């Protein structure tokens, strides 16, 4: 039975220059591999060691990138190793099979959202009305499923995020602050539901996972073993759960450690050397 590895990407496996957390002396900094270019500029990185580990993981497990990114944002990432047969985008709104969204899965998701939470238009209107242009740089709607703001973090009032979360809770939505983005996402739109579907299709009997943000909590609750880095929303709130290991590493070295844990566990399960 295959091992399934479902991992968040941004600030879990891949890192922007601002999120690398290279606190060691320059001469001891790890070699980096650029895995994403946007508008002709390098955007996201892994260590070369993590990249090799991710390539090796393809022989030991079914690797499923599991991201809140839209399909377009995901497809510009060039991960090392073979192209994943499955990928989860838009926080579970799209299940990609060989790079193409499964229409039946997407239909099931949208039907559930329509029946269980307030419409996107209501949330979007609230964001436009209450967010201050002084600290908002962009308003975005992702895949007609959820909304997010790009903000100036140093100007963003912390109380505003808390008030938005309380307001959204009553409508069946959740709020997450990740880097310079404030996400408003319907509660039924989850990574875990899509991961369960991939596990069913592949027949996996062991599911591993990793993530750093509030939107990854349901994913980590759904896996058999999981890891979170020492940065991000989950670390800031000391979030934990059975089977979840809180790692001491931060930044891109946390990504390297996570890949190492995936590989060690998958190989051990398959009877190979840890």
Automatic annotation (TrEMBL):
Record bears the keyword Hydrolase: yes
The keyword Signal is annotated on this UniProt entry: no
GO molecular function ontology, one term from the record: hydrolase activity
Keywords: Hydrolase
InterPro entries (alphabetical): HAD-like_sf, HAD_sf, TPP-like
Highest taxon of source: Bacteria
Name recorded for this polypeptide: HAD family hydrolase
